[in-house]
Automatic annotation (TrEMBL):
Protein name, entry field: DUF3153 domain-containing protein
Transmembrane segments: 209-232
Keywords attached to this entry: Membrane, Transmembrane, Transmembrane helix
Keyword Transmembrane assigned: yes
Superkingdom assignment: Bacteria
Organism of origin: Euzebya pacifica
Keyword match Transmembrane: yes
Length: 238
């Protein structure tokens, strides 16, 4: 099917927040021709993914459908409060995507160092086809990889609220070019047979001390003003 000019988009996203929590999302989007060819062959990968995710708790599911009701895109999404919950959710997604023909997700570990206040996400992201896929298609694995590479776009994206710590190996770019100190994005584009290392670390944004002092000063002035007004009123009453 892929050799016939069809296209398939795969995308995994990890969005991290100020506290080391965030959201995990995966999208599977074949083009209409691939959906039709898969249906003709009795294959329904989108429906299979939907069934697996619906059996899980805590995941949101959104779909895109053609006019005839045929699934054309599936996105699954969940949130997590910290490293432990991320580990659970990520393994659920790995299990849902597990197939003997290919591997799309590798081991990832989210950690929070409370002393340094550093959040880190490390591991590997693979795009690996197996001999099972080669046997199913009757094409040598190397040739199959070349065919899949022209038809499948697979990206793995990590977003952090602030720039990475200095010396982090993974390259990043600002989400907003006009705000280089704001949210950052790491984008891995993978080809079949590749496995890329992921090394993301950032210091959790701290409290704005100036803002706190300013707010505290305003609050203090307000209290003094109210107190002064009350005292003045009492003097007038006397």
């Amino acid at each position: 099917m892929l050799a016939a000019g069809c296209e398939l988009r795969l995308e995994t996203r990890v969005a991290l927040d100020d506290d080391g929590g965030g959201a995990l999302e995966f999208t599977l989007a074949p083009d209409a021709e691939l959906v039709d060819m898969a249906a003709s062959a009795g294959v329904d990968p989108l429906g299979r993914l939907v069934e697996r995710v619906e059996a899980l708790e805590g995941w949101d599911l959104s779909t895109g459908e053609a006019e005839d009701g045929t699934l054309q895109e599936v996105t699954v999404r969940t949130g997590f409060d910290g490293p432990e919950e991320f580990g659970l959710r990520y393994e659920e997604l790995r299990s849902a995507l597990d197939a003997p023909e290919a591997q799309l997700l590798g081991p990832l570990s989210l950690a929070l160092d409370p002393e340094a206040d550093v959040v880190s996400l490390t591991g590997t992201v693979p795009f690996r086809l197996t001999e099972v896929a080669a046997a199913d298609t009757g094409v040598p694995l190397e040739t199959l990889g070349q065919q899949v590479d022209t038809a499948v776009q697979y990206t793995f994206v990590v977003t952090t609220p602030v720039p990475l710590v200095e010396g982090t190996a993974t390259a990043t770019s600002p989400v907003d070019p006009e705000d280089p100190d704001g949210a950052q994005q790491v984008v891995l584009e993978l080809s079949p047979g590749q496995e890329q290392a992921l090394d993301v670390a950032y210091v959790r944004p701290g409290l704005d001390l100036f803002a706190i002092l300013l707010q505290g000063g305003i609050a203090l002035l307000a209290v003094l003003a109210i107190g002064g007004g009350v005292l003045a009123q009492r003097r007038r009453v006397r």
